[in-house]
Amino acid sequence: MKDIQTNLIEIIKRSLHARGLAQIPDDQIILDIPSDGRFGDFSTNIALRLSKLLKQPPREVGLSLAEDIKKTLDKDKLGSFVKEVKVEGAGFINFYFSEEYFYTKLKNIITVGKDALRINLGKSKKVLIEFVSANPTGSLSVAHARQAAVGDSLANILDFIGFSAKREYYLNDEGNQINILGNSVDLRMKELAGEQIDFPENYYQGSYIYDIAKKAKEENIKKDALGDYASGYILDIIKKELEDFGVRFDCWSSQKELTRAGKIEQAFESLKEKGFLYEEGGATWFKSTAFSDDKDRVVIKSDGAYTYLAPDIAYHEEKFHRGFDWLINLWGPDHHGYINRLKASVQAFGHDADSISVVIVQLATIFRDGKPVQMSTRKGQYITLREVLDEVGKDAARFFFLMRRTSSHLDFDLDVAKKQTSENPVFYVQYAYARISSILRSSSVKIDDDVNVSLLKEKEELVLIKKLLQFQAVLNICLQTQDPYMVTIYLQELAEAFHKFYDLHRVLGVGDALTGARLALIEGAKIVLACGLELLGVSRPEKM
């Protein structure tokens, strides 16, 4: 069964088509949840978007379109679910759902369980999400940790809404940074042997280099193998950190293996045949301006060395060869200028520009005692994922890293994350789940198929039901934005709706019929809370 949001969007599309407006892109037809419940359960600004095209006032466009929508609703037998369609404000079309809709959907959730919350938006489309991909030269920083939380949760959400999502970590395991890593270990080995060393500023200076140097000395690793040895040592640490963070990868892709397999040469041969490579000034250039990049890009320097772009071009084409339909890359803010050239390379191989999405994940600042913790990657003076995990635990770490849009800088307060109070958002949400679990355990009244949820008439009961039924719309927003952030906001709002309801209304001991209805309501809340927390990779404690 389609969710009502998808049904309403299709009805709006049909109304537009009937008016000869089939050219309106699907992504222009948006249904939002109004921040103020007085303006309906869903709202669309399509009339405002069409106003300029039709050269009519938006309210006039909205009134006309609303009439078409009402007629279609009746034909589609959705009339009993949509109580009213109103044009309000500047021309917003607002949809008001009936109590019958809310009661029917609540019954469906408690009868079917988590599967009632699924929506098949992906239709099994194969998606590859590449994230973290930190160079194996040191422990993961909080910037990498934020990417890990976002990427893993996004993959969970896409799987849940009908995509087939895979997670990939790309290892830049060759080149200058691996050479510097090996040289850093070599110098520390000499120090350990008693030599006086002038350690270069641009070498890796963290204490972990001494640990690697000691191991390399014990195992008698030769100087020319130190880079590979050290990167392998660090990679094992990274894998363990990610495992403890609840993040698993389906594939670890190696740049070194990409080069050895001749994938870069194969990709360039193909681009050359297509006319998108040329020689100039002794270098080889990719004609990225053919695909809206601001300038062409060097891929092979005059000394014969590859630029950073070269392996990336081959790597992304290889992803498509593996059968993926949609590539999603999570990058740090320092890669923003790289997007157009990569999209150009994807198009040069004949793929649609929209077949690759790049999500820029902004940095995070860690606060302790109200002050930001200073960071310096080269010197090893930075808070690592391991330190955050040890201090606040996996649940708080994952939830807090997701609490802002990826496009916004994140302030992570370690002191708040450790609090066992409602001030801590993850505690607040988990406490709602545990509180519901306790009520359900202590009840002698069982929820059966005949439970009469129409007895739920109180304001707080209806607010909680409405909040439950917004979950699918929130997942749809996550898909549109490629960002799981909205789930954290939604779960806090759902927990608040439950706590307000429970603080004002007894569940047990109010007569079997009403008790059964209220138990069904909180069972529905528990199912949705559990699903949301699971998608974020956060545990669901039965007791707290």
Structure description:
- By secondary structure, this protein is α/β, with parallel strands linked by helices.
- Among the domains are: 4-97, Gyrase A, domain 2, CATH 3.30.1360.70; 420-536, Isoleucyl-tRNA Synthetase, Domain 1 (Orthogonal Bundle).
- The longest helix has 25 residues, at 512-536.
- β10, α12 and β11 (356-360) form a beta-alpha-beta unit.
- It contains 19 helices and 14 strands.
- 49% of the residues lie in helices and 12% in strands.
- The radius of gyration is 27 Å and the shape is globular.
- The strands form four sheets. A five-stranded parallel sheet has the order 6-5-4-10-11, with helices on both faces.
Radius of gyration: 27 Å
How large a portion of the residues is in β-strands, by DSSP E? Answer: 5-15%
| Number of alpha- plus pi-helical segments | 19
Classified in CATH, the superfamily of the domain at 420-536 is: Isoleucyl-tRNA Synthetase, Domain 1
How would you sum up the major sheet?
A: 5 strands, parallel
CATH class of the domain at 420-536: Mainly Alpha
Strand arrangement in the largest pleated sheet: 6-5-4-10-11
* Mean of residue pLDDT values: 94
Question: Helices and strands: which structural class?
Answer: alpha/beta
Number of strands: 14
Shape, principal axes of CA atoms? globular
Helix content: 40-55%
Unreliable spans are: none
- Ends distance: 36 Å
CATH names the topology of the domain at 420-536 as: Isoleucyl-tRNA Synthetase, Domain 1
What would you say the CATH architecture of the domain at 420-536 is?
Orthogonal Bundle
